[in-house]
Fold this sequence. Notes:
- The structure is a homodimer.
- Chain A is 27% helix and 26% strand.
- A five-stranded parallel beta sheet of chain A has the order 3-2-1-7-19, covered by helices on one side. In chain A, strands 9-16-10-11-12 form a five-stranded parallel beta sheet, covered by helices on one side. In chain A, strands 22-23-26-25-24 form a five-stranded antiparallel beta sheet, sandwiched between helices.
- In chain A, α1 packs parallel to α8.
- The first copy, chain A, is an alpha/beta fold.
- Chains A and B meet through α1, α8, β22, β23 and α10 of A and α1, α8, β22, β23 and α10 of B.
Amino acid sequence: MKIVIVGAVAGGASAAARARRLSEDAEIVLFERGHDPSFANCGLPYYIGGEIAERQKLLVAPKELLQQRFRLDVRTRTEVVSIDRENKTVTARDLETGVTSTESYDKLILSPGAKPFVPPVPGADLPGVYTLRDLQDADRLLDVVTKGAKHAVIVGGGFIGLEMAENLINRSIATTLLELGDQIMPPLDKEMTQPILKKLKEKGVKIRLCDTKEAIEKTDDGLKVTLTSGEHEIADFVLLSVGVRPENTLAIEAGLEVGPRGGIKVNKQMQTSDPDIYAVGDAVETYEFITNNPTQVPLAGPANRQGRLAAEHIFGRSGEYRGTQGTAIVGLFGMSAAMTGLSEKAARRFEVAYEKVYIHPAHHAGYFPGAQGMTLKLLFSPEDGKILGAQGVGGGGVDKRIDVIAMAIQAGMTVYDLEEAELSYAPQFGSAKDPVNMLGFVASGVLRNDQPIVHADQLDKEPWTDALLVDVRTPAEFESGHIEGAINIPVDDLRNRIDEIPVDRTVIAYCKVGMRGYLATRILLQNNRKAYNLSGGYTTWELMQ
Amino acid sequence: MKIVIVGAVAGGASAAARARRLSEDAEIVLFERGHDPSFANCGLPYYIGGEIAERQKLLVAPKELLQQRFRLDVRTRTEVVSIDRENKTVTARDLETGVTSTESYDKLILSPGAKPFVPPVPGADLPGVYTLRDLQDADRLLDVVTKGAKHAVIVGGGFIGLEMAENLINRSIATTLLELGDQIMPPLDKEMTQPILKKLKEKGVKIRLCDTKEAIEKTDDGLKVTLTSGEHEIADFVLLSVGVRPENTLAIEAGLEVGPRGGIKVNKQMQTSDPDIYAVGDAVETYEFITNNPTQVPLAGPANRQGRLAAEHIFGRSGEYRGTQGTAIVGLFGMSAAMTGLSEKAARRFEVAYEKVYIHPAHHAGYFPGAQGMTLKLLFSPEDGKILGAQGVGGGGVDKRIDVIAMAIQAGMTVYDLEEAELSYAPQFGSAKDPVNMLGFVASGVLRNDQPIVHADQLDKEPWTDALLVDVRTPAEFESGHIEGAINIPVDDLRNRIDEIPVDRTVIAYCKVGMRGYLATRILLQNNRKAYNLSGGYTTWELMQ
């Protein structure tokens, strides 16, 4: 068995190592266009920012190790330029010498990755305009940021753009971030991104939403970035991080099927339209876990699993890719934002029926010092309570809750299962009723109709515009800010003042986070009022303003 | 509907709040023998140690709040002394005045908790000998530790004993911990407790295992604790924390069934042998999740869920207690130890067939600064890979992995599902192959026979005593410590030196953590050697010495 692998990062490296474990006899050739196989892609921003001081650390599996330990024929700086499917060979070009050679294969695995998209604007090719994909890009940027650069413009508010913003701020570089959309972190829903946006601004990142570059020119002051808004920014350098595109040229030229967004089409065994050719990682179009719709999600975890699966299938194993949940996280200035499964906008796009709830718990017991707040959002099926997706933003412990829910999604669990989750509790780590349980309680309460809810983004829509808003917080909380038109009846007074609530009008109770609002809703419902709780309370309402 | 609840902490308070949410009309009487309803039990050691500075913070739901917000009839310092099941009344005594009164009920919920066990040794009743159950106990201990106490003896190496040891050390009190058993943290398996034991010793806790008090006497120097070993310890005060016993007197006197270990017997709706009487929390005998065997686990999370379920069943809902997984965690000096599901000793006790694996991953990407090590142990069914239990010990991120696996256990998932888990990865939070995935890879490899394993505690038993141990680490690692009798062939040399490995002898490969040992095992197996990998490598072996 001779296996040829194109691309030696993440998926390709995983496939190679797995293939070797499964077969000592296989001949395994690993082509890598770049200088380094299996480098730590996700560490690049922190290397540029100086948090990762040793370049060496980013070389997760150096060439020598792959050669010696896994007996792989590793050929870096060598690009596979064509595939001859009929004769089952690839042609590769040594990028140092220009010499081409032909290599036969029994099975071919494509793991070419995705390349940063360079938008077609004037000046995108100027010196001082960068993208970030590999260690050499990172070396160049490290050079720039440590040699006097004072101003930077980052184009694109995705995870990498934001991580770069943090790292440039840590280098004391004045940083402006441009984002064409009306929110940062596009995979998340907008309201969930607000706490991060606020933190970035606090830390000095200048953020322009709904604005992007129209042109880049060289001036005496540096690069002048002219914006859609007509304004401009001056910078010593520009980083383009507006997303990636699958490296699909090789596949297309070989006649392999690709999807509408360019991802190489594969089945659940990671085989392309040619069963002897597999494709894995950022270049493939795979399946969204919940809906089974086609999706392209460039993430390291799925890439590794896909590489492993391809190798296993080659050796006759029966594994199957289960689809991509899109579990992802970003850490910024001590905060984090994470998600798994469907976002609300994805649910809409896929026309999946959903209900949602918000909570704002502390990451561990409130009575123990250092509890940090977080906001969690859960999407679930209104029919059977099946969990569709979750997002979290806050300080510590967001990763844990999203990971627990990621597991629940994989298992096809429901919000009722979250109620019963038995998670570890000591005051430093959680609460006797963990945020995951709380999500279950609230969502189940909605489905059982214990707690009809309304969302902050519905208040200005029918049939809610005539509803009476009752702020059930304390007068002091009410005075410090409330929703326009609300009356204030603290929950503890509600029973005594129930006569102030009309019986013929829809009533929306709200508090700070939704807990007192829930109790108020229960009191109102049992007193024959048409009552709803504002999910996530005033805190969620504020995130939606 | 009139509901009487005995005990207002955790389960009782949860039941009361849930009952009120379900019914505004219900009359709900909450008896509490102590001074405070719903206090933060798990915070007491940190209050004594000074980490929680404000006593007020421990009063999670003060009496006034329960009265006002939930309209509960809360009667603290009032002990229910008898139940008249025929007439459905309880007799309660006001502990301040001694006056007794009778209260009728439609439904009665017992949540009396568990009391610290006071071993029958001479001197256990001396002044200066304490137990820790409620805020008043904590107040007394706070007084002692802030007024000149210099030496303490803690009896019992369970979670509370250890948390108290940390907090006394933080108060600069010389602390000796006595534990009758041969390990601390009895719910965990011994080898998993070793890193914590080491840390405690480093921090100055004097620990005596397999030794306990035989007698306590008052001397001029303080309390003299004479030990089983014949030695003695002198201390200013002694804390007894050798476990708890269910508060079952009331239930027994009312003729309710209790289990062999004293827990009040309940069905899955938390009803006792009298269907109008429910029991919840630390006083009940419930079901172990995996085996359905009876168990008594005093934990806050299960208590709260049980209280909630009891209230729901009273109001005609159909919930069912799923059993207790025993998910628990303790944080000590920045480390943590956690578990969920069956321990190895529990699996043996319940005669559940199991296989186990160990791994020693970092809590996040190794290339990012601050990665801390952890040890994870996974128990699973050798037949179908169903996850039976997990334990973890280390620095950061142990809680997350145990919680993820706790969710997997609830879902009845297998080790193959852990392989596919899609968890959040950024370098600060995890790895592209998360420790949870790694557990899945290793365990699946064992079940698929890719990786036959042997355990460190089997090496001195048949049929392993004649096996050839091959240390596949580097010569430098080998020199710094290895298993007696092992030969050293680094994994990278193994293919070239394969002739040094006999074909007719069982070979056990090992490395530091099991990764290189796995590859070595693959190489050996494919070269027709009878090869096994030592699970968890030298690191696990060391934990078992």
